[in-house]
């Protein structure tokens, strides 16, 4: 999850993603880890409804591609907003 330094404590929790249990260790809160897991689970289920013949590996890769695509779009929007704010200063 986040970068680990000596001053940060690790959190461990078990989550369910697409019917599989995963033990996740990170420096984020348990609620954050569970939120991330629920979003991944939701995206996998959404993609599966449109492509029900995919095996789990292909479904996982398509989920990753979709999530990174969404991330890049949001990052581009954020960068644009940052530039617009700097122009106003």
TrEMBL record:
Keywords attached to this entry: Cell cycle, Cell division, Cytoplasm, Septation
Keyword Repeat: no
Locations listed in the record: Cytoplasm
Major localisation: cytoplasm
Keyword match Cell cycle: yes
Gene3D superfamilies: 6.10.250.790
GO biological process: cell division
InterPro entries: Bac_CellDiv_Activator (IPR053712), Cell_div_ZapA-like (IPR007838), Cell_div_ZapA-like_sf (IPR036192)
PANTHER family reported for this sequence: CELL DIVISION PROTEIN ZAPA
Function: Activator of cell division through the inhibition of FtsZ GTPase activity, therefore promoting FtsZ assembly into bundles of protofilaments necessary for the formation of the division Z ring. It is recruited early at mid-cell but it is not essential for cell division.
Subunit details: Homodimer. Interacts with FtsZ.
NCBIfam families: PRK14126.1
Name of the protein: Cell division protein ZapA
Organism: Sutcliffiella rhizosphaerae
Lineage: Bacteria, Bacillati, Bacillota, Bacilli, Bacillales
Gene name for this UniProt entry: zapA
């Amino acid at each position: 999850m986040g970068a680990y330094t000596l001053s940060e404590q690790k959190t461990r929790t078990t989550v369910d993603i697409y019917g599989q249990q995963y033990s996740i260790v990170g420096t984020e809160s348990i609620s954050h880890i569970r939120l991330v897991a629920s979003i991944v689970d939701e995206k996998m289920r959404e993609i599966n409804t449109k492509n029900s013949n995919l095996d789990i590996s292909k479904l996982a890769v398509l989920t990753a591609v979709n999530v990174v695509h969404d991330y890049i779009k949001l990052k581009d929007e954020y960068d644009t907003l940052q530039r617009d704010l700097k122009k106003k200063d």
